[in-house]
Design a protein that fits this description.
CATH class of one domain: Alpha Beta
Structural class: alpha/beta
Distance between the termini: 22 Å
Order of helices and strands: EHEHEHEHEHE
Radius of gyration: 13 Å
Length: 127
């Protein structure tokens, strides 16, 4: 499964690349640092899944989610945030799942597997 990372913090992206590329069947196909970069990369690399920093700069997430869905129907969007209280807003905005950045890595991998198996719009709460 091709995964596009969207986070403005290089250390977070590096950690995610290291984690995901070790998993059979998962591969990071791109990295975005802001909303404009993310939208351009969705068109270019056509990922199956996006791991989206809920605080990604450049656009409100409420407008970003429909733009992502319009660019790539069936896209799976998993929101990540260091603020667990953002879960409700992310799910309400239409992401497929939410994982706190403070959760163990296994939680993220489990969520990717679960949402990927159920397809987009599974709207899983993985917090």
């Amino acid at each position: 499964m091709g995964i596009l990372l969207a986070d403005d913090q290089p250390e977070v992206r590096r950690a995610l690349v290291a984690l995901l590329n070790r998993q059979p069947g998962l591969r990071v196909v791109g990295e975005a640092v802001d909303a404009a970069d993310l939208l351009a990369q969705v068109e270019a690399v056509k990922p199956r899944t996006i791991l989206l920093d809920w605080e990604l700069p450049g656009r409100t997430q409420i407008s970003l989610i429909p733009a992502l869905r319009g660019a790539r129907p069936g896209l799976i969007v998993i929101a990540l945030s260091g603020r667990p209280e953002a879960r409700r807003a992310a799910l309400k905005a239409g992401v497929d799942a939410f994982v706190s950045k403070s959760d163990p890595p296994e939680k993220l991998l489990e969520t990717i597997e679960l949402v990927g198996a159920n397809g987009a719009s599974a709207n899983r709460d993985a917090s």
